[in-house]
Amino acid sequence: DQQVKQNSPSLSVQEGRISILNCDYTNSMFDYFLWYKKYPAEGPTFLISISSIKDKNEDGRFTVFLNKSAKHLSLHIVPSQPGDSAVYFCAASGGDYGQNFVFGPGTRLSVLP
Amino acid sequence: KAGVTQTPRYLIKTRGQQVTLSCSPISGHRSVSWYQQTPGQGLQFLFEYFSETQRNKGNFPGRFSGRQFSNSRSEMNVSTLELGDSALYLCASSATGVNYGYTFGSGTRLTVV
Hints:
The complex is a heterodimer. The termini of chain A are far apart. Chain A is built from no helices and eleven strands. In chain A, a hairpin with a 6-residue loop joins strand 4 and strand 5 (45-51). Chain A is mainly beta. Chain B is mainly β. Chain B has strands at residues 5-7, 10-13, 19-24, 31-38, 42-50, 53-57, 64-68, 74-78, 87-94, 103-104, 108-112.
């Protein structure tokens, strides 16, 4: 039973446009969320986080939105750049998992020049 | 500063054998976590060590074990290898492991034949 879901395995976006990556979770006890970016043959790189006490966190071109009632979060990348092409993982922690993270399966983003 | 180092990068083993993977965390980091990544499954948490003690454990069989040394370096051992153990094994370190974005290594790609 997957507690963190990323229902889009892949996404293609034109350079300069907005990329929106979605993530849904089922465990209402999760209270801290992260997004990671992963290039081939490398480990995931931390991108941005959000705590359940906030509904938005922004860092440069990256903004994460959290909708607790819908158990949904999204990562917006504006403007998208070819170097953003990677696999993006959503991760959640809290409840029985404590500080350990449950990861989604990832979404492969391709930014087309 | 040096990142998280995992050795070896690649391993090929035969069913029934055992394997030991190594992870050297960022200097000063005391928390080391291990994750298994397989296609379509995202990252699944194996276990976490903090100051030589296993602090949390995921849902993996007892064939998967680990330990942490006084210098925070960690090893993961898998005994009686099965074909389904073929995966990328990632190690991540953090200063405390408490609501903190981990830094990941590049992983060890294990292939069981």
